[in-house]
């Protein structure tokens, strides 16, 4: 489980403070949670979270968010692999509006701007987009990216470009992946996997190849704890027998949280530096809708 890449990059990572402006920057949708939802509509809330990478900052310019709704309620074959969930909409082959009268792109309310993804980890998130859309089965999410994308590594700022100048990210979703808060009130978390999404090319430039997972709070579980001392520069890996792996970079206080874990048994590996011993905790049970607390993991040399 030891990751040489993570260990070498730890000292270069400065942990940014959670910016309050990020948590409240998104425009709230116009309908109160107590207001009735109009006929033939459904309420949608999309939250943005982050699976961290070894950078100081990752700044993503988000301009627009839409959902593709099948108003006839036709479900797709959901046997596709999660690796096929996300892609750049290069040729619009997947934009089926116009070819199928049932399928309609519907826009959500959003506050356009630059989001620092690395502030959205260890259980932090922000309401990215929300509002009322046509009633039906949601098939895809389309995120329009602007040109003001960059990252900071070891104090140096680098521009981040999309592949071939593309600007629209498609995220495929299954009809049963949403949390149903109440009838026709749905929510979903988009987990932007920075480590897999940022690629450094041979000439030192950085390319954005989006890798986005989805998770829910009600159907999945989470894991939280604290790793001390800070000068061990710990990286927490949570993995299961299916080779699913999620990461956490604890805050300076040592607190960490990993969300979007499937129910079952997981293992926790703490990768350390600065002479501290690595630590592994096995057979951690994750339950639906619950946060499993590990307590304080104290590292030793």
Automatic annotation (TrEMBL):
PROSITE patterns: PROKAR_LIPOPROTEIN (PS51257). It comes from the Bacteria. Keywords: Signal. InterPro entries: Carb-bd-like_fold, DUF4382. SUPFAM superfamilies: Starch-binding domain-like. Coiled coil: none annotated. This is DUF4382 domain-containing protein. It comes from Chitinophaga qingshengii. The lineage of its organism: Bacteria, Pseudomonadati, Bacteroidota, Chitinophagia, Chitinophagales.
């Amino acid at each position: 489980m030891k990751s040489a890449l993570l260990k070498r990059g730890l000292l270069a990572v400065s942990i940014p403070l959670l910016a309050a402006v990020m948590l409240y920057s998104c425009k709230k949708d116009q309908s109160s949670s107590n207001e009735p939802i109009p006929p033939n509509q459904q309420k949608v809330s999309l939250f943005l979270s982050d699976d961290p990478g070894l950078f100081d900052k990752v700044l993503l310019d988000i301009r627009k968010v839409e959902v593709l709704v099948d108003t006839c309620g036709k479900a797709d074959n959901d046997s596709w692999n999660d690796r096929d969930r996300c892609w750049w909409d290069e040729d619009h082959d997947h934009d089926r509006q116009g070819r199928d009268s049932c399928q309609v792109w519907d826009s959500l309310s959003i506050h356009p701007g630059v989001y620092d993804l690395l502030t959205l980890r260890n259980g932090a998130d922000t309401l990215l987009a929300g509002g009322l859309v046509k009633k039906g089965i949601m098939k895809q999410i389309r995120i329009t990216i602007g040109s003001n994308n960059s990252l900071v590594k070891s104090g140096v700022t680098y521009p981040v470009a999309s592949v071939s100048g593309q600007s629209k990210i498609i995220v495929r979703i299954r009809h049963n992946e949403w949390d149903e808060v109440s009838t026709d009130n749905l929510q979903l978390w988009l987990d932007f996997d920075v480590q897999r999404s940022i690629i450094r090319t041979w000439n030192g430039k950085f390319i954005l190849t989006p890798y986005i997972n989805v998770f829910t709070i009600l159907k999945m579980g989470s894991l939280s704890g604290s790793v001390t001392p800070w000068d061990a520069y710990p990286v927490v890996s949570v993995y299961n027998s299916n080779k699913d792996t999620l990461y956490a970079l604890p805050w300076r206080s040592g607190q960490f949280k990993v969300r979007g874990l499937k129910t079952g048994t997981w293992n926790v590996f703490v990768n350390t530096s600065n002479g501290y011993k690595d630590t592994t905790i096995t057979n951690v049970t994750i339950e639906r809708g619950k946060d499993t607390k590990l307590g304080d993991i104290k590292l030793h040399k």
